[in-house]
Each structure stands twice: as structure tokens, then as C-alpha cells.
């Protein structure tokens, strides 16, 4: 069995002990998360585990022949080929095996081999053949297509040059390569950063079936909860193991941290009392012995250290300006790009104080609708009317690109910070991952992620009463997300948002607007869990509708066969009659095609529902999610076909009457 074992690993940078005597074990079937505040050394520990970085002391043991793959957070290196060619490189480890097999084949043809030599060559030849076959090399085209599609690539993306992809899509491609490599152990550093909800759900299901071991760093609490079975936390250089789910770890850790915080606060109070005494009596000769005693006491205190990212931060945004009851009224909104209709006939009233999540697959129009609501995109049909007193603030995915300043991070935040929050500004900057010397950085030298966080904080420090937030959780860690979530839940204004963090949506949204290319957006009057339940229920209703169609057709044909008793229309010319018969034949053919497809969909749905009824399936959350997603697709196609069938059947009836 393949394994990776770190024993008593230590590493220092300068005078800081980043990792102290850490021990970690990964093997086949391991599902572990690596947790800890930003800067704790999680990425460093991963690099040690894959041999990219040597520790100061300790041992790294890896099973001979084990294949270990590592996905870094950023800066992946891709080749110059297409997406498909790059994905095929995941199978490059088979090339040497196949070359070796060819060499063995040639040796078998050499004269003079005895039975023992022949047997050894044949054994190695067969071993290679089994390894190549079991590794999926001869099914690689199917596997590549499955993984690329699962991570959001469309078939027409397969021939694009990998170098032409955006940074986020390059990271998806790098993740796809690692999954296709099918290594013994995977170390994935923030694999969900650039994935939407559909891709994250697919990855959850993929990892559930993956035979090897996984070590994950992620800021998506829900993803971790459904994926991992143990947590390793790196805290002040010490690595501790917590068995169980991520939520179980957080609950246990919260109790431990409460005790640490309480001890830290008591120590701070003690230090403050001693320092006050020293300052007060330092220059009084009569108190010199007591002052010296207090100085020695101070020197003997071993400080309790709490990383900046783990300190409790509670933040309430400034009160939103009061607006009318209706925050936004949308009527007949449609948006197209050439012949592609992205949003169709959306009419919606949004009440003050609602928190609405926009959901849907990539390219469904979520960001487009946000730009329209924010007034950035004015090329649409229909109307959008803000309510009385409504002020809109918009956070876009590209907000970071528009920020350029010679000011420091702290100075830039101060330009919009209300006076009452200035004393707490450093804490707020810390909540958005600007800690220590980071606040003195010039805005002009910030990375894209840092600029994005600063732009979000600036907008929230001076909020309007209608916030339009396009992926505000990107580039935030769990602590920062919690601070943002707590503030947005308490925010009295209206929030429209897109997020790929399932837990964040679950906690914040009280309504869900579903968008899908070519269809009218649908509003669900409940949170995200309600939305998923409703989608599943609609799928069941569609099954019943599809099953009853054959009965409706039979009844309709029976009525038509009896005749309507109406006066016949005037006779058509030969050419007109011929054209009319051709049109009716075409309509009937299409009607038959629709009915056959509806029957196939109904059979497919029954099969899925029977599968879900099995105890080993309905107790497996991952398999249930896959089935629910398939049922939702069947429901959508069934609904569209039902509408087309009604129109077609009515046209046939009208033509024959």
C-alpha cells in the first residue's frame, strides 16, 4: 500500500519556527484536511510532503514506486499545446512502460532464449500490460472528456491553446491533469478556488470514488465536510490531528480556542498591571526593589501567542440608508449576445431586506444580470426601476483591476471608513487578510487577490442599501468569510449575490434566482437547501406528466377520429394540398419523435428513482447528489418537450379538422 509519512518534521525561517516536530501520515483511502490560519505554513508542509522543500530536521518516507501529485495554489506550468493535448500529458507515465513493453517484445523474438529467460520476459511483459490496462490508458479519451466536462470545460474548449486560457481556467486544467494521472496520493492546495458550484459538486463525487489518499487545503467548509474524514491543524508551528468531519473539528477546536483566548486575556491583563506598576514607580527610589521584582516577573512570563487570523473579529457594517419597500422592479428583461439569448423575459419585484442568491451553470448569465442591475451594462430590452431612495453598490470580479493608488492599504481604506470605525480599522483589515506589515503595502504593488479583498472591504465600509456582489467570497479564508457572512446577515439592506461557496449561500440566501441559458429565470421562495429540494420535487412531477402523455394522445386521436361535425373547408389546389400534406407529415413525425424521447426520459427517470431507493445509495450523499442532478436535467428537458408537444399536437389537430 502506498503511503507518505512525515516524522518529526521541523523548519525555521530566520528566527521563526514555522513547523515544529510535525508528524503526518497519508495512505490509500486517506481523506484529510490541512487547516490553520493564513501564514501558518500549510503550503510549506505540503511542499515538504512532495519533496519540493527540504526540512531542517525530521524524516520523509514515501513508498517505493508510489506516485504523488501536488496542485499548488497558483503558478502552474502548462505546455504550449491545446487543452486536450495538455490533458493527455497526464498519461505520460505510461509512455516509458509501453516503450519497455516494446523492448521486451523484441527480446522475445531473439534466438537462443531459454525457458527461464522467456518466462521472466513474459511475466514482465504481462505485468506492464495489466498496469497499462488497469490504469485506463486505452480508455483515456473517454476519461479526459469526462474530467474536463466535469470541471466545466465545453467540447469546443478542448482545442483551445492552454496558454490562451485565463488564470482560473489554467488552474482547472492543472487540476484535471492531476485527477487524470490517478496518483496514489494527491495533495491539493485550494482546488476549489476557481470552481463554480457545479464543478465543485462534480469534484466531491469524484473524490468519493477515488481509491487513493487525499490531503486538502480549502476555504470551502461545505466541500471539506462532505469530503474529508480527519483534520490536521497547523497552529503556532505544532501539527495536531482531529478525527472526524471538518465541522466536528471546528466545534472541538472552538472550545479549545475559547480556553486559549481566556488565558491570553488573563495574561494580557497581568502584563498590563505589571507594566503600569513599573511605569508608575520606575523613578521612585523607595520602590526600586519592587520595580526590579516586577521587571523580573515580566521577563519570566512566556507569552501566549494567538495568530492574527484566529482572533475573534465581530463587525457590523454602517447602517444602510432607508429605502422604499420595493428595492428593485424588473419588467420583461431580456439580454442577448448576437443570436445567443442569455436572459429571457425576466420580471421580478425585489423587496427591501431580501438576500437573493443567483445560481446556475457557467455562462448562464449571472454576472450579466448583475452588471445590468448595477447599471454597467445598458444594452438590454425591458426595464429596471430602482425603488425610492435605493442606492446601489456593486462589487465585480474585476473590481481589483480598477484600483490603482500610491496610498498604503490602510490609507486607502481610511478614505471611505466612517469615523466611528477608524479605531477598529486595523482589525477589519486583518479580517480581510491584511495583517502586520501588509497594511503598509502600497496599493499599486498588491496582487489581484489582495486588490479584490481591499475593494470589497472599501465597498462594505461605505455601503449603499442594495449590494450587488459577484463572488465576494473569492480570495477569502474561512475566518474572513465568517466575518463577511455575519455582517451581511445583520445588514438591513438588500443583497444580491453570486457565490460558489455552498455553505455561504446556505447561510445567507433567503431566496434563490435560478438562471439557465435560453429560459426565463425562476425565483424560488426559500434558501438554497429548499431550492435543491424543490428541484428534486419538480423532477418527480415531470415524470408523472410524461407518463400521462400517451393517454392524452389516445384520447385526442379518438376525438379526432369521430369527426368534429364542422363544415369542411373549401378544396385546395393540387400544389397547396401537396404542400399541406407534407407539412402535416413533418408535424406528425416530430410529434412521434417527441413522444419517443419523453418515453425514454420517463424510463430514465424511473431507473434513477429505483437506484435512489436502494439503501446503499440513499445513505450515500455523494451518489444521491449525482442522481438529483440527473433528475433535474430530465425535468428540464421534459418540461420543454411537453410544451413543444402541445404546440405540435394542436397544429396537427387544426390541420386535420
What is the helix fraction of residues, given as a range?
Answer: 40-55%
Whole-number tally of structural domains: 5
Low-confidence stretches: 563-572
Major beta-sheet overview: 6 strands, mixed
- The CATH topology assignment of the largest domain is Rossmann fold
**Beta-strand proportion:** 15-25%
| Structural class based on helices, strands and sheet pairing | alpha/beta
- Strand order, biggest sheet? 5-6-7-3-8-9
* Dominant shape: flat
| CATH homologous superfamily (4th level) name of the largest domain | P-loop containing nucleotide triphosphate hydrolases
- The second-level CATH architecture of the largest domain is 3-Layer(aba) Sandwich
Gyration radius, rounded: 32 Å
CATH class of the largest domain, named Alpha Beta
Instruction: Report how far apart the termini are.
Output: 74 Å
Mean pLDDT: 82
Number of helices: 20
Number of strands: 18
Could you describe the 3D structure shown?
By secondary structure, this protein is α/β, with parallel strands linked by helices. It has helices at residues 42-49, 83-88, 93-108, 115-134, 140-150, 167-181, 197-209, 221-225, 246-281, 288-300, 366-373, 409-414, 425-431, 448-461, 478-490, 502-508, 528-562, 574-612, 615-618, 621-656; strands at 3-13, 16-27, 31-35, 57-62, 68-71, 185-189, 213-217, 230-235, 238-243, 326-337, 340-351, 355-359, 381-386, 392-395, 466-470, 494-498, 511-514, 522-524. The chain folds into five domains: 1-67 and 183-244, 3-Layer(aba) Sandwich (Rossmann fold); 83-164; 250-310; 326-526, P-loop containing nucleotide triphosphate hydrolases (Rossmann fold), CATH 3.40.50.300; 531-562 and 573-656, no CATH class. It contains 20 helices and 18 strands. It has a six-stranded mixed beta sheet, with helices on both faces. A six-stranded mixed beta sheet has the order 14-15-16-12-17-18, sandwiched between helices. Strands 2-1-4 form a three-stranded antiparallel beta sheet, with helices on one face. The longest helix is centred in the C-terminal third of the chain and has 39 residues, at 574-612. The N and C termini lie far apart (74 Å).
